[in-house]
Write a structure and sequence with these properties.
This protein is α/β, with parallel strands linked by helices and about 375 residues long. Helices cover about 30% and strands about 25% of the residues. It has ten helices and 16 strands. The protein has helices at about 55-60, 115-120, 165-185, 200-215, 225-235, 245-255, 265-275, 295-300, 315-325, 340-350, and strands spanning about 15-20, 30-35, 45-55, 75, 80-85, 100-105, 140-145, 150, 195, 220, 240, 255-260, 275-285, 305-310, 335-340, 355-360.
Length: about 375
């Protein structure tokens, strides 16, 4: 059945919406009232039900070197969940994306035509820019995205106990990113020992993915924060210790680390990974805490280590993540706040006061 491109959920009087935007030269998101966008060919308009806040957003605002090359004003927010309320030409016949479909928004806005996409590396295609990181994103009441960038949520029910909008929104990054690193890049196998550096929003989900979804034999989490280690234990880590206790733990329990996932990305965590991963093991860099680090060539060669990088994830990763959440294998920790609190949430995250993930809820869903 052809889908209508009109819906009474779209503001019909002013055609305006609230949005928090990146403005060149500003180090905080700027509140603006902007027109509700109209979907073009092969695009859908999504009524945002929740939008995640990530450390990448902080880096984007505070560190000029981390900003995408596109330097213009746009709406922030690369993690989102919502309902399709309108569709452009070319989407109308696709029942998978019928109006009313509950969807997760895939931040990777891959072109589908370049050499990277042809090789299956759609997560590394940045032309056009990522949603919320160069083009308008989800810190608004509505967002227009290409139909290829929305993934239907299992069950199609925003009231689902396991797949509420705040959970779905953060799944698009905080679950998908470690999922891709652990499955596609590291290739973690059942029974292996996995060491996870960093127990923040990504790390707590990495613990659950490794233990409950992939069947890792032993999961070790390390962080400098006691409360983060306690949460990691609660979510399935067999051991959770501060970095200075890692050596003693591995010796006492006679553990050999097969795979290390570094979700921090600073010299100290990289050095530790090089030391503690067994000969022939794998290290995957995910965190971008430092722009540049050094790697020991001696350790890499004499231990024959496999060192890889991992970035975000692809459509299939997000489908699999949503299914894992639906099945209760991964339960993302998330706190909901009103969209109008966006600036304060960003400030709190920058100060290190946010322990889990935060999702912003637009006025109509608070």
């Amino acid at each position: 059945m052809p889908l209508s491109t009109q819906t009474n959920e779209i503001p019909s009087t002013t055609g305006l919406m609230l949005a928090y935007r990146f403005v060149p030269g500003k180090d905080e998101p700027q509140r603006e009232t902007v027109p509700v966008p109209t979907p073009g060919p092969d695009e859908v308009l999504v009524k945002v039900l929740a939008a995640g806040v990530c450390h990448s957003d902080i880096h984007l605002l505070e560190r000029p070197e981390s900003r995408p090359p596109v330097q213009h004003t746009y709406t922030l927010g690369h993690e989102g969940a919502g309902i399709i309320v309108a569709a452009g030409r070319g989407v109308a016949e696709e029942s998978r994306l019928a109006i009313g479909t509950y969807v997760a928004i895939l931040m990777l806005n891959a072109c589908g035509r370049c050499a990277k996409c042809a090789r299956g590396l759609t997560n590394l295609c940045f032309d056009p820019p990522m949603i919320g990181l160069g083009v308008d994103g989800c810190w608004a009441e509505y967002v227009v995205v290409r139909a290829t960038c929305v993934v239907p949520v299992p069950g199609n029910d925003p009231q689902s106990a396991r797949l509420q909008p705040a959970v779905v929104a953060v799944t698009t990054d905080a679950v998908m990113t470690p999922w891709h690193a652990l499955t596609r890049v590291a290739g973690v196998k059942s029974g292996q020992t996995v060491l996870i550096f960093g127990c923040g929003g990504l790390g707590t989900n990495a613990v659950q993915i490794a233990k409950h979804a992939l069947g890792a034999g032993t999961v070790i989490a390390t962080d400098v924060r006691a409360e983060s280690l306690a949460l990691a234990r609660k979510l399935g880590a067999d051991y959770a210790v501060t970095p200075d206790r890692l050596k003693a733990l591995l010796k006492k329990e006679r553990l050999a680390v097969d795979v290390a996932i570094d979700l921090v990305g600073v010299q100290a965590t990289i050095d530790a990974a090089m030391v503690f991963v067994r000969a022939g093991g794998t290290i995957v860099f995910v965190g971008q805490g430092s722009n540049k680090v050094s790697i020991s060539i001696m350790a890499t060669t004499t231990k024959q280590l496999e060192i890889k990088g991992s970035f975000a994830g692809n459509y299939q990763d997000l489908e699999e993540c949503l299914q894992a959440v639906a099945e209760g294998k991964v339960e993302p920790e998330v706190e909901s706040r009103a969209l109008e609190e966006c600036v304060e949430v960003v400030r709190a995250l920058a100060r290190g006061e946010v322990k889990a993930r935060v999702a912003l809820l637009p006025p109509s869903f608070v």
